[in-house]
């Protein structure tokens, strides 16, 4: 008999939001055959193994659906995850604000036609996000610019709070209507545990599962402002008592208080017993305390939960704490009691692991229904954020051999030494990437009793002793240590015994820089000496000395010989007793006491100025530790059930500030030239004192959906230059200065533009600002009378009545900030010149579309709108003014010159594609190896058509091959491969050229194509907003050359007035200037778009109308668009006008 699962089509309605407790809620079963049932059971058993927490996040799925994305695709066909589909349009958008004061993400965000969230909703949410971001930035020297996933997180919170406060019962009904669909989807995937229906009192908790290092603290600050704004807007602010911030520990509370102060948010440490003084009206202050200070009864330093009330706004950092640990029994119940009638925000990178450890269906149900946003480490890593990582997993037999384990730890030391030396030798070169001095950390279970403690504490003490013994022996046995270094740099895994369970050398390709040093003349003894100087901070070496500081119970300092500066610190809790154990177990160690009290080393270990290179500690410092230094991680004893702790440990190590605070590793920032060997410093090395520690670590990474990275395999594919320079293909570029041969540069060589002038060009092409959508978002729909419903928009001006209320100093500061963001260091902005730009007779540079009522002086609320309008107008003015000045400077200095061999768009003679993939990705590696062979054997065309990685050998392209990888595949390729629309264009171009029709159109012509780099060597056009077209196409016919700049590009977020669209006109102006040199060159520009014509609301409804704007459709006009491109380019010479129907 087959199994039938019956799921009700809608939630039971006997009691709103509380479904009947019946079998229907869990599914009813039938049976039609033993064989089928057994097969289904087996299927379910396999599914249970992969029924990860991410497949249970019903609230997150419901929110994704609100934005019109299907959150429930079949898993085997899930090439693009729903959250990826939602964020794809903004993943590569610029950060920061546009001239209109709204995020670039907002303008790039694609609302699906199926979206329940309306464009007006979206704009209102964005206005709120901008307002709250400005609030926390007001006092910060380094302003916050959100990453795309942070902006999405805030957008999700905006949506949820909007519905929660204004349509709470509708929210409940909508969620419960979604439950059957969600459970049906789970059943189709073979997942047996259904998600229960929601109840009304479950709606007041939302959790953000964002990766460690992804900025959860700053999100918390904005969430507080979002909640305050939403509650006030619903007249419900008075229903809430306090804002209570709960943290796992004292140091983290202090850290939060500092961060809240930086964001301009009033906060104070909660003092037990002083309840009255801590109250603040309307959630005006944050009361911060540790979770451990909550109790059932008042005691010293403990506050009874009942005394704090049950209607609080609760902010819970490290929200996973207390879900599964027996040591934290009661914490979750106390948190729930504080917010029974209030609201909760919880933050953690590891809800998934904590829920799994809890093994309680009630906990799983609660968090499945409250995780609002999921950007766990899997997504963080795939997007290029944080360090790369490599796991060095020695086999169990290797760890069992003392000599092999010593070699393993020596390799760990060499790995760290390589990072430290690189950092110190290339510190200036690494400066733009914001790298911190590397730190080596060994971390394990907490130790409160070094003697007579728990079994777990005993295991950690044993590991600490093993590590300390290693360092002592390394210092004591100089010749053996040098011999070990020599073996590691010259031998292989077979010789050293450093093999994984599959017999692979775990340190292959690990010491590239050190091997270069050795080839340069440094032998093992030289490297050992340098290690003494750099790591141990004492060139003379000496005996390992453990120093106890009088009165300090948590720290033991590590010195080499008589060195004054400690190179390491042990921080475990019961330091005095630990020293006694180590003294007894470590023969080459000296213990000394110091009477000189000094500040604890751990307090400053996060700074690069700290002398500490090594930290051996308990996991107590893991939660919320604000440190960017960790580069090598050694695992000591960590409980097998503590997945959350393992991911937290990992998260500490992969934190990275990145180039320009991008948070990304350099391989994910193609626009920034990479210093040599920087990838070694940007990679977290993970080592384990025992093999089972590493197995647990690997297991949790796999559950997170991450590759083990125990061994990365790098494959290379040569980039062959096909162009022989026989034809002088003409390129645009600035002239060079005769004095020094340097290209003219507006920043360095141009005059200083001073804002205040209004060139004729600006009045002929005024900037246009439409404030109708903004007003619709500000004004409640019930109050809308003459805004969005007006058939004709009113064009107004800011006059004397409005300008009298403008705060010009605030606008000047905003313009200065905007100028710095754009890099216009040579622009002068005089605050006293700004008001004159709005004088009658001088104000022709702008058109302002705005409801007439918004300009009325009778409404005081309009004043703030005038301020924002004036700011946006002036930002757009300096955009237009600066680009006009830049254009005026370059006009006489642009020239056509032949494409030279040193052009950065062309590969160097020895250039290769570098493909890096985890060695465990066997199928992908097989595809890559097959592709390599086929590229060598193929005469041309598409290679690997039905595989995830493809290549194109295109004869007309100046180098070969071009690569493309299906989105979402776990492979890193440099240089960056073609994206889907670029690859489709290359394929369509090749197909047309190869056909008889193409040969007819191109009779007598030669065609050349070149991919244009985005920045740092490519051709860009500031006239079109720093536009770098993806391809340059040359058509050579006799002495005449036609050069077309082509951009395969989606147009959902572009309008007919976009600078990229209008560039087809601008390029003709450039053509007229350069043709004065007598060269026969015609210039064109095209956008070829995968966007459907029906999705563009430009007031044009035919392919021909768009073609006249040089917009061609890759899908709607698939069989003809390439032909049109060639014909339009060639026909212009003869004066013909293409009229494509």
List the helices and strands and how they pair.
Elements: H1 34-49, H2 58-66, H3 82-87, H4 104-108, H5 119-137, H6 148-166, H7 168-188, E1 205-210, H8 216-233, E2 243-247, H9 250-262, E3 267-269, H10 275-278, E4 286-290, E5 294-295, E6 303-304, E7 313-317, H11 331-338, E8 343-348, H12 351-358, H13 361-368, E9 371-375, H14 377-382, E10 388-391, H15 396-400, H16 402-425, E11 439-444, H17 455-476, H18 478-490, H19 493-496, H20 512-519, H21 524-534, E12 544-549, E13 555-560, E14 568-571, H22 575-585, E15 589-594, E16 614-618, E17 630-635, H23 643-653, H24 678-681, E18 683-688, H25 691-703, E19 712-718, E20 720-721, E21 730-734, H26 746-749, H27 760-764, E22 767-770, H28 772-778, E23 795-796, H29 800-803, H30 808-822, H31 831-834, E24 846-849, H32 862-890, E25 894-898, E26 912-918, H33 922-937, E27 941-943, E28 949-953, E29 959-960, E30 962-965, E31 972-974, H34 980-994, H35 996-1001, E32 1006-1011, E33 1031-1037, E34 1040-1048, H36 1059-1074, E35 1081-1089, H37 1103-1107, E36 1111-1113, H38 1121-1131
Parallel strand pairs: 1-8, 1-9, 2-4, 2-7, 3-4, 5-6, 7-8, 10-18, 11-16, 11-17, 12-15, 14-16, 17-18, 22-24, 34-35, 35-36
Antiparallel strand pairs: 12-13, 13-14, 19-26, 20-29, 21-25, 23-24, 26-31, 27-28, 28-30, 32-33, 33-34
Helix pairs in contact: 2-7, 5-6, 5-8, 5-28, 6-7, 6-8, 16-18, 17-22, 18-21, 30-32
């Amino acid at each position: 008999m087959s199994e039938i699962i019956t799921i009700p089509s809608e939630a039971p309605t006997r009691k709103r939001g509380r479904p009947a407790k019946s079998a229907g809620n869990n599914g009813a079963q039938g049976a039609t055959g033993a064989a089928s049932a057994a097969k289904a059971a087996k299927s379910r058993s396999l599914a249970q193994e992969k029924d990860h927490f991410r497949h249970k996040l019903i609230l997150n799925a419901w929110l994704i659906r609100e934005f019109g994305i299907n959150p429930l695709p079949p898993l085997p066909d899930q090439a693009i995850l729903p959250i990826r589909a939602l964020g794809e349009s903004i993943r590569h958008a610029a950060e920061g604000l546009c001239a209109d004061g709204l995020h670039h993400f907002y303008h790039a965000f694609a609302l699906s036609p199926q979206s329940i969230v309306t464009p007006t909703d979206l704009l209102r949410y964005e206005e709120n996000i901008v307002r709250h971001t400005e609030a926390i930035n007001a006092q910060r020297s380094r302003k916050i610019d959100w990453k795309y996933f942070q902006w999405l997180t805030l957008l999700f919170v905006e949506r949820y709070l909007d519905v929660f406060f204004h349509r709470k019962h509708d929210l409940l009904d909508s969620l419960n209507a979604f439950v059957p669909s969600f459970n049906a989807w789970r059943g189709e995937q073979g997942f047996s545990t259904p998600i229960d229906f929601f109840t009304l009192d479950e709606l007041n908790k939302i959790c953000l599962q964002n990766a460690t290092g992804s900025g959860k603290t700053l999100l918390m600050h904005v969430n507080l402002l979002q909640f305050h704004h939403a509650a006030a807007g619903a007249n419900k602010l008075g229903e809430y008592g306090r804002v209570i911030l709960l943290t796992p520990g004292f140091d983290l509370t202090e850290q939060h208080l500092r961060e809240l102060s930086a964001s301009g948010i009033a906060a104070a440490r909660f003092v037990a017993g002083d309840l009255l003084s801590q109250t603040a009206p309307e959630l005006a202050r944050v009361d911060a305390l540790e979770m451990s200070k909550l109790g059932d009864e008042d005691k010293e330093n403990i506050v009874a939960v009942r005394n704090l009330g049950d209607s609080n706004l609760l902010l819970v950092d490290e929200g996973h704490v207390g879900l599964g640990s027996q040591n934290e029994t009661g914490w979750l119940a106390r948190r729930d009691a504080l917010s029974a009638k209030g609201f909760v925000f919880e933050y953690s990178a590891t809800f998934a692991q904590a829920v799994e450890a809890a093994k309680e269906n009630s906990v799983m149900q609660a968090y499945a229904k409250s995780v609002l946003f999921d950007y766990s480490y899997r997504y963080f890593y795939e997007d290029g954020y944080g360090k790369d990582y490599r796991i060095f997993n020695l086999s169990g037999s290797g760890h069992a051999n003392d000599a092999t384990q010593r070699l393993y730890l020596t390799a760990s030391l060499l790995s760290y030494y390589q990072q430290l030396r690189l950092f110190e030798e290339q510190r200036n070169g690494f400066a733009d990437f914001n790298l911190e001095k590397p730190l080596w950390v060994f971390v394990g279970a907490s130790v409160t009793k070094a003697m007579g403690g728990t079994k777990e504490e005993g295991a950690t003490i044993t590991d600490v002793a093993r590590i300390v013994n290693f360092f002592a022996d390394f210092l004591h046995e100089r010749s053996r240590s040098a011999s070990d270094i020599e073996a590691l740099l010259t031998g292989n895994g077979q010789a050293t015994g450093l093999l994984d369970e599959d017999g692979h050398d775990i340190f292959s390709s690990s010491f590239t820089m050190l091997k270069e040093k050795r080839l340069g003349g440094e032998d093992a003894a030289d490297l050992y000496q340098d290690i003494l100087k750099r790591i141990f901070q004492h060139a003379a070496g000496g005996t390992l000395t453990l120093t106890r500081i009088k009165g300090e119970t948590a720290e033991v300092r590590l010195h080499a010989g008589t060195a004054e500066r400690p190179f390491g610190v042990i921080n475990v809790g019961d330091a005095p007793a630990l020293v006694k154990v180590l003294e007894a177990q470590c023969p080459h160690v000296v213990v000394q006491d110091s009477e000189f009290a000094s500040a604890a080393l751990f307090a400053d270990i996060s700074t690069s100025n700290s002398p500490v290179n090594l930290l051996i500690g308990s996991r107590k410092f893991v939660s919320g530790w604000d440190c960017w230094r960790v580069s090598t991680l050694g695992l000591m004893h960590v409980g097998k059930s503590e997945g959350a702790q393992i991911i937290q440990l990992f998260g500490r190590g992969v934190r990275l500030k990145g180039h320009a605070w991008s948070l990304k590793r350099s391989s994910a920032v193609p626009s920034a030239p990479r210093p040599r060997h920087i990838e070694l410093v940007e990679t977290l090395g993970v080592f384990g004192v025992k093999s089972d520690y590493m197995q647990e670590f690997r297991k949790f990474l796999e559950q997170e959906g991450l590759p083990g990275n125990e061994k990365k395999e790098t494959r290379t594919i040569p980039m062959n230059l096909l162009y022989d320079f026989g034809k002088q293909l003409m390129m645009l570029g600035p002239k060079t200065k005769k004095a020094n041969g340097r290209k003219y540069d507006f920043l360095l060589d141009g005059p200083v533009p001073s804002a205040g002038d209004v060139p004729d060009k600006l009045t002929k092409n005024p900037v246009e600002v439409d404030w109708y959508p903004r007003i619709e978002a500000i004004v409640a729909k019930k109050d809308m009378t003459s805004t969005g419903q007006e058939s004709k928009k009113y064009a107004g001006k800011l006059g004397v009545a409005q300008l009298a209320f403008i705060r010009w100093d605030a606008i000047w500061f905003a313009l200065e900030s905007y100028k710095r963001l754009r890099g216009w260091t040579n622009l002068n902005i005089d605050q006293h010149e700004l008001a004159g730009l709005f004088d009658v007779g001088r104000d022709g540079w702008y058109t302002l579309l705005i409801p007439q009522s918004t300009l009325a002086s009778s409404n005081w609320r309009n004043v703030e709108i005038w301020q924002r309008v004036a700011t946006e107008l002036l930002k757009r003015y300096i955009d237009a003014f600066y680009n006009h000045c830049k254009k005026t400077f370059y006009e006489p200095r642009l020239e056509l010159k032949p494409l030279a061999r040193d052009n950065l768009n062309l590969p160097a003679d020895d250039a290769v594609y570098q493909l890096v993939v985890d060695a465990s990705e066997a199928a992908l590696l097989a595809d890559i190896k097959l592709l390599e062979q086929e590229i060598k054997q193929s005469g041309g065309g598409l290679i690997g058509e039905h595989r995830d990685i493809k290549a194109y050998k295109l004869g007309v392209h100046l180098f070969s091959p071009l690569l493309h990888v299906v989105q979402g595949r776990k492979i890193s390729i440099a240089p960056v491969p073609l994206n889907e629309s670029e690859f489709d264009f290359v394929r369509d171009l090749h197909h047309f050229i190869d056909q008889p029709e193409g040969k007819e159109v191109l009779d007598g012509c030669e065609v050349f194509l070149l991919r244009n780099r985005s920045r740092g060597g490519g051709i860009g056009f500031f006239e079109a907003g720093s536009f770098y077209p993806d391809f340059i196409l040359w058509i050579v016919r006799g002495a005449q050359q036609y050069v077309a700049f082509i951009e395969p590009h989606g147009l959902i977020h572009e309008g007919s007035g976009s600078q990229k669209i209008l560039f087809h006109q601008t390029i003709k102006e450039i053509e007229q200037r350069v043709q004065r040199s007598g060269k026969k060159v015609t210039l064109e520009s095209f956008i070829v778009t995968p966007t459907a014509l029906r999705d563009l609301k430009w007031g044009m409804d035919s392919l021909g109308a768009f073609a006249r704007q040089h917009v061609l459709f890759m899908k709607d006009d698939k069989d003809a668009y390439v032909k049109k491109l060639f014909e339009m380019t060639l026909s212009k010479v003869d004066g013909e006008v293409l009229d494509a129907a």
